[in-house]
Structures are given as structure tokens and as C-alpha cells.
Amino acid sequence: MPSRSERGFTLVELLVAMGIFSVVSVTIYQTVFSVARGSDVSTAVAGVTQEARLGFNRMVRDTRQASAIQATSPTSYTIQVDFDFNGSITAAGSLNAQGDYETLTYSYDSGTGTIRLGSGSTTPEVLMAGVAPVATTTPPCRGAIFCYISNRLEYDLGDGEPGPSSAGDGTTTCLELDRAGVAGVGNKDGTCGAAEWGLINSVRFSMAVTQGRSTTNFRAEAGIRNTR
């Protein structure tokens, strides 16, 4: 009869050991896979956020360099930028001597969730994706991607904005200029139009970019150079 030290493992002991080893192996694998997947997701989100930030910064920078605002709507606006500093604006859709377009349109497409840059003659370039309005009930500009602001505080009426009146909030929106309807300041047609564009001093941006479960808010206000 073999001594205790010479005995091998029984079948039951082998099965138990194999079972424990399998459980431990699966746990380790799941942990490693989860960490790797989390790292990939974090990298992807960081990449998307960085791309969105670059697009957002470009939009804000161009708006600050603008010499005039040419058109507005709740989801788009057009500016003119004298990139070559020659004192004139190259015709829309044409390149200046430096190869730049000087009439630019930024637009938000709610269907695709994108912010695009168009120059009039080329397919609009996607600057930001996964974009949606920031949910807010705080006036002014509640829920607006683009909001057009004037420094004419005497027309801070409140009743030109959507939702409850916010008179005296310290911000005059383009719709408030329209509501004023006095000589040289708006025409009461219910839109931010040509009658008000000359009094717009800045564009306010507010949007959220979502990638997977991660959401980043982007907010800024860009003063138009010649109207500050």
C-alpha cells in the first residue's frame, strides 16, 4: 500500500481543481476584457470630443474675426470675414488671393445632429457631430444652438423671446430688437432679419455633444469684430 506522500489526486479532486481554475480564468478574462473595452471607449470619446472642440473653436474664432453678419435663423447664420485684410470681402463662393472663402455659413442640422460649415460653392464640411440643443428653461436663448445678441440694452424687452417674459435680464436678443419695431431697430415681423442684423454684436453658442454615454456641453459667446 503506497504511503500518504506517494498518493496522487483522486478524480473528484481533479474535477474540483479544474472547476476552480476555470472560474478564476473566466473572471480574469472578463476583467481584462472589460478594462480593454473601457479603454477603447474612453479613447473613442476623447477623440470625438477633441474633434468637436476643434470644430467649435473654429466656429467661434471665425465669428470673432467677422466684419459683418449677413443672415440669421434659429439654426444657421452667415458671416463675412476679411481673411486677407485687403479691406473688401471676396464674392460668396469665390476664393480670395490666399485661397480662403470669406463668406461663411454655419448651420445646425437636427436630423443628423451635425454642425456644418458651408462656403457657397462646396459641399458643407462637418465640424461637429452628435450635437443637440442644451435643455434649459433659463432665458434668454433657451434651447437655442445659435442666439444673436445686441448691446442695445434699452430694448431688453423680454416679450420678444420664446417662453415666459424675461424683461430686464441684461441681454437684448435679436428677437427683442425685432419686437421693438422703432425707426432703425427692427420691423416687428417676428423674425431676426435684415432689419436687425446691423445691431447684432455677438453670437452666443450653446450645445451638447454626445458620444455613447458621455455628453459634453459647449458654450461660448463670440463678439463680432466691427460691432463691439
Structure description:
This protein is of the alpha+beta class. It has one domain. Helices cover 29% and strands 25% of the residues. The strands form two sheets. Strands 1-2-3-4-5 form a five-stranded antiparallel β-sheet, covered by helices on one side. The radius of gyration is 29 Å and the shape is elongated. The N and C termini lie far apart (102 Å). The mean pLDDT is 81.
Question: What structural class do helix, strand and pairing data support?
Answer: alpha+beta
Strand order of the largest sheet: 1-2-3-4-5
Shape: elongated
- Rg computed from alpha carbons, rounded to a whole number of angstroms: 29 Å
Distance between the termini: 102 Å
Strand content: 25-35%
| Number of continuous helical runs | 3
Mean pLDDT figure: 81
Main β sheet profile: 5 strands, antiparallel
Secondary structure: number of strands: 10
> SSE order, as H and E?
HEEEEEEEEHHEE
Tally of individual domains? 1
The poorly predicted ranges are none
Helix share of residues? 25-40%
